[in-house]
Amino acid sequence: MTVLVLTLIILVGAYVAGLVGSLTGLGGGVVIIPLLSILLHVNIHYAIGASLVSVIATSSGSAAAYVKEGITNMRLGMFLEIATTSGAITGAVMAKYLPVQYIAILFGVVLIFSAAMSLIKRAEYIERKKSKPAEMLKLNGTYPSNGEHIAYNVTNVGGGFVMMIFAGAMSGLLGIGSGALKVVAMDGIMRVPFKVSTTTSNFMIGVTAAASAVVYLQRGYIDPGLAMPVVIGVLLGAFTGSKILVHSQSKKLKYFFAIVVTILAVQMIYKGISGTL
Amino acid sequence: MKKDTEQLEGDRDIQLFIGSLLRWGVLLSMAVVIFGGIVYLYRHGQTTIDYSQFKGEPSLTTRFVDIIDGAFAFRGRAIIQVGIILLIATPIARVLTSAIGFIAEKDYLYVAITLIVLAIIMVSMLGGFGG
Lengths: 277, 131
What we know:
Number of strands of chain A: 2
Distance between the termini of chain A: 19 Å
Number of domains of chain A: 1
Largest sheet of chain B: none
Order of helices and strands of chain B: HHHH
Strand content of chain A: under 5%
Largest interface: A-B, 63 and 68 residues
Oligomer: heterodimer
Largest sheet of chain A: 2 strands, antiparallel
Number of helices of chain A: 11
Structural class of chain A: mainly alpha
Structural class of chain B: mainly alpha
Radius of gyration of chain A: 18 Å
Number of strands of chain B: 0
Shape of chain B: elongated
Number of helices of chain B: 4
Radius of gyration of chain B: 20 Å
Strand order of the largest sheet of chain A: 1-2
Helix content of chain A: over 70%
Shape of chain A: globular
């Protein structure tokens, strides 16, 4: 295939990936990797490298909007970035030694988990219990809702920190934002209200991805010819998605995309097991 | 109580600044990537390419010094890579800005936490994990 044709195909594919990623909350990375590796037979290392770059772009782009709204808990994000960045380096190092088949299988598993998580309805929960480490680290905060500031506490800091190391490692190994795992850490373990956890997790994704991207770049996983259409397409798709999201929150659409993503994930796992990647 | 509101005000300024920093970082890097992409497609658009095997990358797109040299020599792939480096630098610049913000607030615990994050990124960058 010529460079021009391939670039145009990837541009369109990445736009769709960014759009679907934004509408489902899965992120563009988890959708673009199977698109590249299954449909276009791109080597998974190149696919992961290009995806990771697009993750930085979408995370930074949307964080810019969120931060100004004052919902993001910057101290919580900053503190947990110690965990995610050190996890990310570990993941980026592992990517070199783990056989491609295992990476594909692991990717499929994380993708199915993320798709399932995107369907779970998250209830707004405000933790009232005070926790010593959270107070010491000044992690408790407030967020604006309907013109008033709602105070919340953060709990189980240690557990959340460990989960974030894992989330960072998956991000560095698979080239994704691993938003679903960050939600588990913040909503599930640390009991952060979901508005805060969504924006704070997104805020952390950029720097987490940057920590492993510097390794990827030196190792040659980031091919400019691939990364260029991927990052442009995903960013534009995510931007379109954020505009649509305000208007429609269709349940059917969410289920439809979750099924599509699961089919892609199963194919990744199958290709990994059969060794045809 | 007064101290609390002061801290909140300070946080607000940093948040607004960080918001702009992230937005402009993404816009600038995208502009460079698109420009490099046009140069690359103009020169190599008709070349046949195959990404099915991982072959690594030449130093033109992996070594910082060679990327900069290549960009000045108007090589499309090197220019795209400069855009990508700017993109990677955007969240790192955000961490640096937070550090300055915490210094201004005299929140030394968070100055330390921010510096730890920066140190981890430096280790990743210079630790020779790329080989």
